[in-house]
Write a structure and sequence with these properties.
By secondary structure, this protein is mainly α. The chain has one domain (about 1-285): ABC transporter involved in vitamin B12 uptake, BtuC (Orthogonal Bundle), CATH 1.10.3470. It has helices at about 1-30, 40-55, 60-85, 90-110, 135-150, 155-165, 165-170, 175-200, 215-225, 230-250, 255-275, and strands at about 125, 130. A two-stranded antiparallel sheet has the order 1-2. A hairpin with a 2-residue loop joins β1 (about 125) and β2 (about 130).
Amino acid sequence: MDTLIIEAFARALAVGTPLLLACLGAIVNERAGVVNLGVEGLMAVGALAAFAVAASAPDANLWLAVGAAMAAGAGLSALHALATVTLRANQFVSGLALALIGTGAAGLLGKRFEGLPLFNKVPDWSLGGFALSPFTAAALLLAAGLAFWLAATRSGLTLRSVGENPAAADVLGVNVGLVRTLAVLGGGALAGLAGAFLALAYRSSWADNMTAGLGWIAVALVIFVGWRPLRAVAGALFFGLLYYLQFRLQGNSPIPTEVFSAMPFVLVLVVLALAGLRGQAGDAPAALGRPYVRGER
């Protein structure tokens, strides 16, 4: 029984890591008032960039591959920043377009990498017989650091003020457009980092649609955890455990496998509905999804 519990916790951590990283990126975006539904596409291009660098040579620098993934995520998210912050386009439409562009481009450009070996992968750390990925450790530290930064630092307060009342922040001398743009770029970099984990540690390969909907779950997870970084840790573990149970139960139950495949997405709808009944949507930044135009109310 103890072995089964440890295995379930380890697998929940593994699957929860990209969810947590992507969720933290979306929290940064949305605390600044910008909705980003393109997380799935950002994760896909991050995974492709990481694998392309890592598979380029047997002695390729894996941390350079991680940097490439973050740069790819930030670079693609710049399109979202341009559309929503500079041109004040609809944030939901722009995010959906970003998701389609990212997944489509990754699928097309990644065809040449399908079936190629990854010469090495980011190794896990062994902690008393328990394997821990450096990505997982980084995600946990980032969650704690982001929670502290938002609550206890001047720059974190500035970010939150832009998401709550951009007009007031503007009066106090804050460059609202710059803050929102940097938040979108930073969130994109974290989504790219989530993709790097999939390519360099979790799957250690490249395949089309390797994100498998994790980006969409991460977007919903932001609402479920009330835009709180520390709550995101528990939420990511919960959905990671759900994914583990999905694969564990397939083939060991008379229930069709399609039911288990749909289970994480069905549960997303359930938990979001419960969050709405509890009024958790009231935790959303007041200016979320609204473009800011100086002088307008």
